[in-house]
Amino acid sequence: MGSLAWGVSFSALISPQKDRCRPFSINHHHLLRYRRFMWNTSATNRHSTFVCSAQQVVGIRRYPPHSGDEGSSAPSNILEEIVWNKGSEVAQMKENMHLESVKEALPHALPPRDFIGALKVRAAETGLPALIAEVKKASPSRGIIQPNFDPVKIAQAYAKGGAACLSVLTDSKYFQGSFENLQAIRHTGIQCPLLCKEFIVDEYQLYYARLKGADAVLLIASVLPDQDITLMLSICKSLGMAALVEVHSTEELDRILGIKGVKLIGINNRDLETFTVDIRNTEKLLQGVRGGIICDRDIIVVGESGLFTPEDVAFVQRAGVGAVLVGESIVKQNDPAAGIAGLFGKDISRKPE
Length: 353
What we know:
two-stranded antiparallel sheet, eight-stranded parallel barrel, disordered N terminus, alpha/beta, TIM Barrel, about 40% helix
């Protein structure tokens, strides 16, 4: 995935803070200098938190190139391949159920629940990052993760084990998920709010996810330009859903911090080019002024990928995350609730009232 060249070193203009949430953690003098510099720089260099060129920052091509276009005709990584497939998949979904029909059915859907509120409550109860536990059968990199896959039973075990919210994979081709799984879990009466873990490329998917019971959706910064994210945040708000905006790099995080209305940011520790995972990516992205802005705006950061042990969770908590999204390390366990206890190093299950 291509990266953006900065006109000036962003890190040179910020003051790293060990305690990011202290009052006045942002060096406002340096921040003002940075804003002024980026505003006065030529248009080709305006790629900061405050002035960004979305088309140049977005690393994933939304559609396969036409014959004769520059660039490879093959997808550059698995995410790009998924996105290309998703375009035709959504077109078929629209044929099966038109957008107007989806909207007409929305009043009959189960009402949305407070996804962000659930994270805050659970984190306050445990003193640990709130868990978004993922209902996941397979992945392109790992193949089948849980051969005895029963989405409802897994979801129930997660809820019992102390998860604040659940993430449900709905992509069928690459992750063997489905919207039917999402709907089935919602209709069991599980109290945990649900994140629809889908590769969103079209606003249609937002309405469809809400119809199937989603309380939140995933928006990926490397896939969606700023104007699309802005529009989709507005749609989510109108539907009563939260949006988890996922970033992989400082460039993507700077873009997202320049968009109003972002309340949840996911930091994915997986490199899209190599698929290697390094949880130090979370620490890197939250250092300095970026972490200060996040604290000042009361944005919840969700750590994603590479979290397997209590030490991993403690590391990203120190870096500043308020929640973690974990799938593989717990879904592959025969007892997912025990897997949650192993992940956090103690029992965080809800006690009967």
